[in-house]
Amino acid sequence: MQPELGEPFAALPDTHVIPTFWPVPNTGVIGMNAFLIRAAEPVLVDTGTGFLGDRFLSALTSLIRPEDLRWIWLTHEDLDHSGSLRRLLEIAPQAQVLTTFMTVGRLMPEQPFPLDRVRLVNPGDTVNVGDRNLRAIRPPLFDSPATVGFLDDRTGALFSSDCFGAPLPSAELAAAHRADDVPPDVLAPHQVAWATVDSAWVTTADEAALGHALDQARRLQPTAVLSSHLPPIHHCLDRVVDTLRSTPSADPVPGMTQTELEALLAGFEPTPKESVDA
Known about the structure:
The chain contains ten helices and 13 strands. By secondary structure, the chain is of the alpha/beta class. Strands 1, 2, 3, 4, 5, 6, 7 and 8 form an eight-stranded mixed β-sheet that branches. Strands 9-10-11-12-13 form a five-stranded mixed β-sheet, with no helix packed on it.
């Protein structure tokens, strides 16, 4: 099952979501979001998956001319976040990349790009983009040590990268414009499942330390939390923070076995007879 690009929508008046949906058998539908901030110096947050590069760029250009893009905030190096980076740098000549040195180092072997177009940011740094400041933060949960999110001080939006994500059990729920509309009894277990897979270290984390990190995010009092893998959170942050507090005591999720993989593939591949008949 292949990922599909969704229709861009406004999470806040000047902040748009460019969503991608990836159906994963026996798991649900995982959202993969990029974001466009219509700042005085426009900012793209992450660059979508390269598999859908043409469609991603078409969606982006429906919102902004590439030559007007000034910044690309790359939260980390994973390919669902960095897939269209090289192409964007070609068609957006003014754009500079905001990211950590570790992200640059991890990308360079496979996806080198001009270092003179990089501005390094670390948690605590602030970047001015004309009409607002973006304050870099380390999200409470992450799957890459290179991860850096940020708080937009004009809108109050917190960009949390993979943190707070969840695969959702239907395409309709994954395509919701607000995580607040996902039933709590559905959202909570899927957020725990995501956290224990994507940030597998969390099941060995110190509960008090994780709770402190989550409380720090809550004390930012964001107007919205924009996760890379969940519809925008507007009013249910307290609830999802409390959900993630439980993750250190969650059972680790076992990895897929070869037998399970073969059973999964059998559901997609034609039998030899069907292949011949075709």
